[in-house]
Amino acid sequence: MTTPSPLLSRPGAVALALPEGGTGTVAAHYGEPLPEQRRLAEGAGLVDRSDRDVLTVTGADRLSWLHDLSSQHLRELADGAGTEALFLGPNGHVEHHAVLAELAGTTWADVEPEAGAELAGWLQKMRFMLRVDPALVTDAWALLSLVGPRAEDVLTAAGWPVPGVVGTVVALPDGGWARRSAAIGDGTAAVVDLLVPRAELAARADALFAAGAVPAGFEAFEALRVEARRPRAGVDTDHRTIPNELPWLRTAVHLDKGCYRGQETVARVHNLGRPPRRLVLLHLDGMSETLPAPGTPVTSGSREVGRVGTVVRHHELGVIALALVKQSVAPDAALHVGEAVAGIDPDDAPQEVDADVAAARNRVRAVRSATMRG
Hints:
Blueprint: E1 14-17, E2 23-29, H1 33-42, E3 45-48, E4 53-58, H2 62-69, E5 81-88, E6 94-103, E7 106-111, H3 116-125, E8 133-136, E9 141-147, H4 151-158, E10 169-171, E11 177-184, E12 189-197, H5 201-210, E13 214-216, H6 218-227, H7 248-251, H8 263-272, E14 277-284, E15 297-300, E16 303-314, E17 318-326, E18 335-337, E19 340-344, H9 355-373
Parallel strand pairs: 3-13
Antiparallel strand pairs: 1-2, 3-9, 4-7, 4-8, 5-6, 6-7, 9-12, 10-11, 11-12, 14-17, 14-19, 15-16, 15-18, 16-17, 18-19
């Protein structure tokens, strides 16, 4: 989607700067980057995420078809339910992360900006003779996110339905839906994603502002997302990333479902040992005015031990980043990201493997070893 959002015309709006140069279609901030973060953390802010691509899948076979193609168990996905799913390459590498909503005979998926055409094209090739119809509908639909502990109050004041627990999807009266997603920040900033007709984006936003929401830029959302250790595909991942390295193994992968593309890698790494890397939160010294770009190496001495993804200035934590680092990196290792000194957050020390899991993995190794000798 290349058309600027109408919310960029609001007072103080500054367009998001793109890594490859130029500006995006949504606001990075509305003149107060750090205060906007605090408003999301403590109140209710409306974040324009209309640059995300939106797809629909209709047809009687859609859920079983998506179940077979993705990492998630979707055969019995209930009407009014939402979840996450990954589409993997043949070797288990993450290609797309999708947030789903099932409502009234349509499965909706929102994905990273500029990723929708590639995913839609691949889905079209996988239709075969099944009763499914995938379509890219970004031109018609736009995503907003109402974020903060007062998000429900704003929805109620606006007369909009309030989705309950995480994963609930409810229809909006004049088209679209509201989906409760996992909280960000320190876990108290609720997130309600709102899919609205793109032609009504400004009017729907104005209704929420009148009900008590305040505008907050995408950078504020990103800061709280990083604090919550929520990765983004293509930013916090690279061409080698497998689900086992990320929290998506818990939220977007069903470990007991049947075969899907890339499943062998996911199962093997899960059963036989730890993945080669892990996602951690880094604290950077913040001495430089320019933040490291996604993909900048993380080094320990002369060794490259990882790569950073999203780097943000947080209103309380300073400069923080999500990074994929090797499992061998010690929790207290002295690290660098470019010229910045970095350290791993104490909460992200490697977890001890559960004794039952370790025993099961040892049994699998023994069987594989005996098979190889035989």
